[in-house]
Amino acid sequence: IAATQPSTDWHLKENAREHHTSKFSSEELIVRRGQAFTITFNGTERPEQNLIFIAETGPKPSKATKTLATFDISSTVSKEGWSAVLQSSSSSSVSISISSPHNAVIGRYRLSVQTGSSSPQSLGTFVLLFNPWSSGDDVFLPNKAECEEYVLEEFGIIFAGNKNHISSFGWNFGQFQGDILNICLSILDRSLYYRQDPITDVSHRHDPRYLGRVLSAMVNANDDQGVVLGNWSGKYEGGKNPTSWTGSGEILQSWKKSGFKPVKYGQCWVFAAVLTTVLRCLGIPTRTITNFSSAHDADGNLRVDEFYDADGNHLERGADSVWNFHVWNESWFTRNDLGPSYSGWQVLDATPQEESGGIYQCGPASQHAIKEGEVDLDYDGPFVFAEVNADCMYWNYDSATGKKTLIFSKSTEIGASISTKAVGRDNRVDVTRDYKYEEGSAKEREIFKKARKKLGLEDKFDPTAPKQEEVEQKPDISGKFKVAGSLEVGKDLNLLLVLENLQSDAKTVNVNMTAWSTLYTRRRVNQIWKDSISVTLAPKEEKQFPIKIKYPEYQQQLTTDKTIQVTALCHVEDGIQVLVKRNITLDNPGIDIQVLGEAKVNKEVFVEVAFTNPINEEVKDCVLQVEGSDLLQGILELRIPPLKASEKSSTKFKLIPSEAGPKHLLVNFSCDKFADIKTFKMVNVIN
């Protein structure tokens, strides 16, 4: 044996091309499991004789836990384990094709070679990932365009707003940038599961179901000093406002740089976006999903109870809530534990809402199981089912007597316009039908009853069922809020309250109205306005009452979520109360991006961003934040001078793209009057 250490040629370019890992910028070999890769090394004499390879991962590799493999040169690829096939050899070097099994543990491996009875010599390390392009892998995704989108795409669109008014913003997942892969691997090594039993934890890393669950716990800071600390208070001192992030890279880098201290702060879309980055990086096809009017059913009865006082104020009573929207993830893999019909998209939710198995983690729940009401199947079926399907009960609560009266219930309120980004395009795709049968159909009610029965809520006496005096009565009038005019921050808010008498005799109605600024979770923050009117409605008459809330009235009270809840509690004389409510999301003013000239690899190109102050007063503390994978390194932050009323600002900066193809530039503009105005622009980079 030559005494020198073997030197290894990992054929980085060729292997990366074959394994769909070219987007990683790494000096280390990164390959996918169940597929051959080629290496060449020298420093062994008579190389093809008695070569034994050793691949090992984790703290205490062993054959029993499938974290250690020893294999010699064979003529064919092994169906079961690792194998090495000789490609070519000369007097000084040897080329070998190495294959790993379809169900290999993923992570960083140490590879060494042994000749005869000598001690093993290290060839170096490589990283092994999941392989959605390979039919034997649990994450196999047959559609190549979907592999491109759900594994290789670094740009995403997240849907927000509310079900009457869906908005969207771009996000830079950036799973192939810089050090992100190493950070993702260190997330795994910091989980509670690893700390409690590292050997068992690593041996389970072949299973996307296991990793999905572990990562849903690690992306939030609860329990385990994970990546992001949630904050839904409306006050974000000591950290960044959740609406200000534009990508996952900054969050993951900050977590590492701070010595793995949770990054402040996140809300649902931040947790979901970071989880998307980590799972795509490891090779599990993943997307973000937005559910509108999303239920948080804290007591597990598939019902959400909301309480209002006599003035129509929404009371913070009970732990249930309905959010304007909630964002979670779906990952694609087989469910060998449940059976083939439950494979495919699996729901994972890293937002810390309820504990599961003693810690804040959620999923994987089979999307198909949710649709069929199979809430008893692993994991967290009842919680996810309620998010898209719970019934809503609205109560009037008298704090003096403690008496609650049912105003009305609604079974079609929850789980609307469930949305995700289209494959290969920037459009919205509605996936509501993948989660439930048509709202209000007999089949949908049948599934709801089936789910309640599985949870033991249908058969035995249900303490939450309305008592006799709480049974819903038919109202005498109906009401709704209509929007008149634009919904824009900086403009007055014009609404119409429409009341209709459903009876054939006149009705007198006393109406108490309130408007509150809220978070997107509908948590009340500041009261903006209140008013009361008394009206008489002739038989079958419909009347409209205009409501104007001026910009100066709401400007100071508005949260960065730009959401307002308007309610009218109508007390009908000698009749039952009617609750009219509407959640309104205001739009920010627009911002414009122009790319000045052609974008070419490694050449400067200028970009201009323009913003016009739409209000009648000066705006100051203006900051522009820009990011985009392969367009610029890290995040560019530019300070902009104050803008007088109606003044236009125009800011130029340069990009030096590092890779060809369609890339996305994300811009976030903030000032004292407008928070986080976001937009994105596709930049087609040519060679």
TrEMBL record:
Active-site feature positions: C268, H326, D349
Reaction equations catalysed: L-glutaminyl-[protein] + L-lysyl-[protein] = [protein]-L-lysyl-N(6)-5-L-glutamyl-[protein] + NH4(+)
Family the UniProt entry places it in: Belongs to the transglutaminase superfamily. Transglutaminase family.
PANTHER family on file: PROTEIN-GLUTAMINE GAMMA-GLUTAMYLTRANSFERASE, PROTEIN-GLUTAMINE GAMMA-GLUTAMYLTRANSFERASE E
Cofactor(s) it depends on: Ca(2+)
Annotated signal sequence range: none
Note on cofactor: Binds 1 Ca(2+) ion per subunit.
Pfam families named in the record: Transglut_C, Transglut_core, Transglut_N
InterPro entries with a match to the protein in the record: Ig-like_fold, Ig_E-set, Papain-like_cys_pep_sf, Transglutaminase, Transglutaminase-like, Transglutaminase-like_sf, Transglutaminase_animal, Transglutaminase_AS
Protein name: protein-glutamine gamma-glutamyltransferase
Positions of Ca(2+) binding: N389, D391, E439, E444
EC number: 2.3.2.13
The keyword Calcium belongs to this UniProt entry's keyword annotation: yes
Name of the top EC class for this enzyme: transferase
GO molecular function terms listed in the Swiss-Prot or TrEMBL record: metal ion binding; protein-glutamine gamma-glutamyltransferase activity
The Transglutaminase-like domain, residue ranges: 260-352
Calcium in keyword set: yes
Record keywords: Acyltransferase, Calcium, Metal-binding, Transferase
Origin species: Motacilla alba
